[in-house]
Design brief:
115 residues; mainly alpha; Arc Repressor Mutant, subunit A; two-stranded parallel sheet; two-stranded antiparallel ribbon; 6 helices; DNA-binding
Length: 115
DNA sequence: CGATTGACGTACG
DNA sequence: TCGTACGCCAATC
């Protein structure tokens, strides 16, 4: 058995699940909240596993720092799944980019930092 | 076991 | 302002 730092992945799943409906977060923000922002890529890897863990992690609520749906192609149901889900939550997405992303941005460092 | 990849981000030109 | 290069860290080939 290799006791990898599942703490990182676990935290990622926890945080992503805490993202409220109609809100989105970024890999960098999550990574920064957990691993001091040095492993934004690891968050993406965690998301890749997200489809293999349970309950499934709302990976569609996690995008890159510019609000671009970079990972939509990784969804099992199809590349449109991510956008459809986000639109269904009240978000507006044009050209795979979330409009007014700043307004919907859910930062765990802030939201979870509230006493 | 070594090299490459990867759903990112920041720095530099 | 836009484009390219590099760094992180783990998993996969």
């Amino acid at each position: 058995m290799k006791k990898t730092n599942n703490h990182f992945f676990d935290e990622v799943y926890q945080v992503v699940r805490l993202i409220p409906k109609g809100r989105v977060s970024t890999y960098g923000a999550i990574a920064k909240y957990i691993a001091t922002g040095k492993s934004a890529r690891m968050v993406g890897w965690a998301m890749n596993k997200a489809g293999s863990v349970s309950p499934k992690v709302p990976a569609h609520r996690v995008v890159n720092r510019i609000g671009l749906l970079t990972g939509k192609h990784h969804f099992n149901n199809g590349p449109n799944t991510m956008q459809q889900l986000l639109e269904k939550e009240g978000l507006l997405i044009i050209d795979d980019q979330i409009q007014q992303f700043e307004l919907f941005f859910w930062d765990p460092m802030i939201e979870l930092s509230i006493e």
